[in-house]
Amino acid sequence: MKTQTPFNEIGSLEKDLAEIAPLVREGYRQLGGPSARVEEAIREAARKQAARRKARLAWPLARSLAAAAALVLLLGGGALQLHLSREAELQAEAAARRLAAERRAAAGETSAGFANILLEIQGLNEEGFFSHEETESLSL
Amino acid sequence: MKQKMSDVETSDAELLRAFSKGDAPAMDLLVGRYRQALFSWLLGMTGNRADAEDLFQEIWVRVIRHAERFNDVSFRAWLWKIARNLLIDFRRKRRPDISLDAVEDEDETPLVDQLADRGSGPARAVEVADLTKRVMQAVAGLPEVQREVFLMRVQADLSFSEIAETLKIPLNTALGRMHDAMTKLKRLLAEEGRL
């Protein structure tokens, strides 16, 4: 049921309360507080939560450090990659150059021999002619 | 050097802020400040030590988890809002109401009887102990709504405005319930020749 009476008598209530409240407080005080087990459980919960909060507060710093470390690794890795690929490129170029030189040398030898044969066929191989002549005169 | 929190100088809100930054002992101080008042209120509302202990722990764990959310003017009022909400949840799960004289199981002594024989000294002390016991029985016998307001004023030391706000009732309703409770308790004390 709703109270219809307006109460402007807080002062009078407080006066009566001053009489009764100490008895009530004393009675409950005598009944004691929560057990040590409960208080320890609360302390433990507080410790864990406080540790989590500390970790969370330290998180931005850790994140910055991790980001910096990742950047360094990325740059280092990139540089290494560039270096390795450049080295491989140089080795490939050197090998290609070597191969080309060998091919050129081989091609040079082949074409010189072929030219001599052609000259001989045409009887224009002077070197062959003179050597032959010399051999002939000696036999006479 | 970081200065240690002093129990006397630091406000509740400051302790809660310190805890939010990872200072666990700040919560110890806060629990210590409200230990007896909150536990007494819970004993008065549940009439049972085991339930009062469960609720006491649950309330503080809630405070610990939600410390960062605290933005009320009064920590005391916030604490009792949490306490009352958890008490309501607890009752929904358990039985509808238990009086101070209720017995949890056959081995457990009723709370009021735990006060017996405490004043076994001089006659005056015995008289006071007896009166305390009778007053507590009378408080336990108050209807739930009156007991709630009465104990919030006496144990939690909340103002009537804070009580009204916590219970989400008009101020006059809170005052009315208190008036009715006081009338019953005064009658008892008058019968005892105290008022």
Task: Give a concise summary.
Chain A is mainly α. Chain A has helices at 10-31, 36-122, 126-139. Chain A has one domain (34-139).
How would you characterize this protein structure?
- The complex is a heterodimer of chains A (140) and B (195).
- Chain A has 140 residues and is an all-alpha fold.
- Chain A contains three helices and no strands.
- Chain A has helices at 10-31, 36-122, 126-139.
- The model of chain A has no long low-confidence stretch (mean pLDDT 80).
- Chain B has a domain at 9-98: Rna Polymerase Sigma Factor, Chain: A.
- Chain B is 65% helix and 0% strand.
- Chain B has helices spanning 12-20, 24-46, 49-65, 75-93, 123-141, 144-154, 160-167, 171-191.
- The N and C termini of chain B lie far apart (56 Å).
- Mean pLDDT of chain B is 83; it is low at 100-106.
- The interface between A and B is large, with 39 and 55 residues.
- Biggest sheet character of chain A: none
Largest sheet data of chain B: none
Q: Write down the overall mean pLDDT of chain B.
A: 83
Cα-based radius of gyration of chain B, to the nearest Å:
18 Å
The radius of gyration of chain A is: 54 Å
Assigned CATH superfamily of one domain in chain B: RNA polymerase sigma factor, region 2, helix turn helix motif
Chain pair forming the biggest interface: A-B, 39 and 55 residues
Classify the secondary structure makeup of chain B into a structural class: mainly alpha
Q: Helices, strands, pairings?
A:
The complex is a heterodimer of chains A (140) and B (195).
Chain A lengths: L9 H22 L4 H87 L3 H14 L1
Chain B lengths: L11 H9 L3 H23 L2 H17 L9 H19 L29 H19 L2 H11 L5 H8 L3 H21 L4
Helix pairs in contact in B: 1-2, 2-3, 2-4, 3-4, 4-7, 5-8, 6-8, 7-8
List keywords for this structure.
heterodimer, A: 140 residues, mainly alpha, 3 helices, rod-shaped, B: 195 residues, Rna Polymerase Sigma Factor, Chain: A, 8 helices, 65% helix
